Amino acid sequence: MVKAPTEEHPRPAFGWAARDSSGVLAPFNFSRRETGEKDVRFKVLYCGICHSDLHAIKNEWGSTIYPVVPGHEIVGVVTEVGSKVEKIKVGDKVGVGCMIGSCHSCDSCANNLENYCPKMILTYSAKYHDGTITYGGYSDIMVADERFIVRIPENLPLDAGAPLLCAGITVYSPLRYFGFDKPGTQVGIVGLGGLGHVAVKFAKAMGAKVTVISTSTSKKQEALEKLGADSFLVSRDQDQMQAAMGTLDGIIDTVSAVHPLLPLIGLLKSHGKLVMVGAPEKPLELPIFPLLMGRKIVAGSCIGGMKETQEMIDFAAEHNITADIEVIPADYVNTAMERLAKADVKYRFVIDVGNTLKSSN
Ligand SMILES: NC(=O)c1ccc[n+]([C@@H]2O[C@H](COP(=O)([O-])OP(=O)(O)OC[C@H]3O[C@@H](n4cnc5c(N)ncnc54)[C@H](O)[C@@H]3O)[C@@H](O)[C@H]2O)c1
Ligand SMILES: [Zn+2]
Fold first, then answer.
1. Is 15 a residue whose pLDDT tops 70?
2. Does domain 167-300 match CATH 3.40.50.300?
3. Ligand nearest to the CA of 195
4. Binding site membership of 291 for ligand 1 (Cβ less than 6 Å)
5. Looking at ligand 1, which atom is closest to the CA of residue 256?
6. What pTM was computed for the model?
7. DSSP assignment string, 227-285
8. Whose CA is nearest to atom 26 of ligand 1?
9. Ranges in the chain annotated CATH 3.40.50.720
10. What is the ipTM, given to two decimal places?
11. What is the CATH number of domain 5-166+324-356?
12. CA 20 to centroid of ligand 2, rounded, Å
């Protein structure tokens, strides 16, 4: 028998959910747990719209549990803390990113890499420790274990800072881990969307030389003049791509759809690394010979651990790095999803949850 939401958890909550793979979002009443002794409860003020939310509502990865309340770039103000919470107090500005739980006992958890814990629990469309389904940040309140709470520095704007909780850490972590953060390193960023545009900003702040690789010239001027990239390559322009062969130490590939890897591998120097962070729904073709000839590496990377996420947010605040955003009301989410699918946003939609999410009852 289906339980009423408040039988499962005592605290009523309200958000927007997709009920099936049409991906259409509509108002949704549900409930959240009581504030546990290690929990932080906060009023959601803003939530970014990640392309992963779009993959998820349409079940493009085949793992969505409906109804799904998406959103994993969530910021707000703390309203309650449990008795054993140590670092967060009522009134603090905080955030939650892509995960809200892990096993706390494996090697990855012991090394602050909760993101690689085999039992990592995603912020939405996953099963929590108590067996209930997790719901994301297109909603009025959030509750999470303190370990998965990020402190938002005072000088970081909450709306333009929200996307850093997923887009930011997803690019910051591989830039650091793969050594693309050394001054003068030649780094390529493929796909100038939500992830890509903050990747340019972080890589520049770390001292890298940044080349944006895009399918058309439409974002060229902005990439060079506004985002601070050093050069711009049009991936469909054979002459440009040929001239740039063997020039990059590393590439971060943020593209959300199936696309050819051969031209990207060609851009790498010997020993160069192509790091995939985009998550297309179907496998990509991997040409082997160009990898062998030059001992090149293709790797992947998934968000970042909580310690590194805090480090990334503090680095962003110090270097004035935020996302370029279009703030929207909650009832615009379906239009926003249609526009995101067409890459018609510069560069991240952020829902003004605090001012526009209105419960129907
Ligand atoms: N690895 C991780 O931890 C992680 C975290 C967040 C998001 N993601 C994934 O990263 C991808 C990007 O997310 P986003 O929020 O930046 O999306 P986005 O839609 O904002 O940006 C994607 C970019 O890819 C470009 N693009 C789309 N199709 C293309 C094609 N066929 N060829 C070349 N370029 C193309 C778009 O123009 C856009 O600039 C998504 O697949 C998302 O699920 C992964
Ligand atoms: Zn995301």
1. yes
2. no
3. 1
4. no
5. 41
6. 0.97
7. S--SEEEETT-HHHHHHTTT-EEEEEE---S---SHHHHHHEEEEEEEEE----SSPPP
8. 255
9. 167-300
10. 0.99
11. 3.90.180.10
12. 20
